[in-house]
Specification:
With 139 residues, this protein is α+β, with helices and mostly antiparallel strands. The chain has a single domain, classed as 2,3-Dihydroxybiphenyl 1,2-Dioxygenase, domain 1. Helices cover 17% and strands 42% of the residues. It contains 2 helices and 8 strands; from the N terminus they run E-H-E-E-E-E-H-E-E-E. The protein has an 8-stranded mixed sheet, with helices on one face. Strand 6 (106-113) and strand 7 form a beta hairpin. It is globular.
């Protein structure tokens, strides 16, 4: 089963933007994690920035983060601030879709196991659309 969720990336003001959307849409944050809470090494000025957030409101949901400084799989460049996140429960199905969408495109992060326990990867398809892939790990 595939689930599609828009993923927004911000240039350091993700929390401000999500609070703005929260007020406008009367939503909530089921999860908001910061770079400093992860095992990744980040500059001190980035530890309080948003690594990943989920935002929900009646009738909708998005995910969001601040761009990761210096990472090759995300960029502060114009055109990379919206990604489409596909969530899977079956890893084989995820890899089948990943391999089809990468044809003629560019893999920006190979699918691998992440510190939060899921398999995750990213690519830009041949039409310039940014995709994220996530398969829930065994809990």
């Amino acid at each position: 089963m595939k689930k599609l969720t828009p993923y927004l990336m911000f240039n350091g003001n993700c929390e401000e933007a999500l609070n703005f959307y929260k007020d406008a849409l009367d939503g909530n944050f089921p999860y908001m994690g910061r770079y400093g809470e992860s095992p990744m090494e980040v500059d001190d000025d980035y530890k309080n920035k948003i690594m990943h957030a989920e935002f929900k409101w009646d009738g909708g949901a998005i995910m969001a983060s601040d761009h990761m400084k210096g990472a090759g799989f995300t960029s502060e460049a114009s055109g990379s601030n919206v990604h489409l996140n596909l969530s899977f429960i079956d890893e084989a199905e995820m890899m089948d879709v990943f391999n089809k969408l990468k044809s003629g495109g560019n893999v920006t992060m190979e699918v691998d196991e992440m510190f939060w326990g899921d398999k995750f990867g990213m690519l830009q398809d041949k039409f310039g659309i940014h995709w994220m892939f996530n398969c829930s790990g065994k809990k």
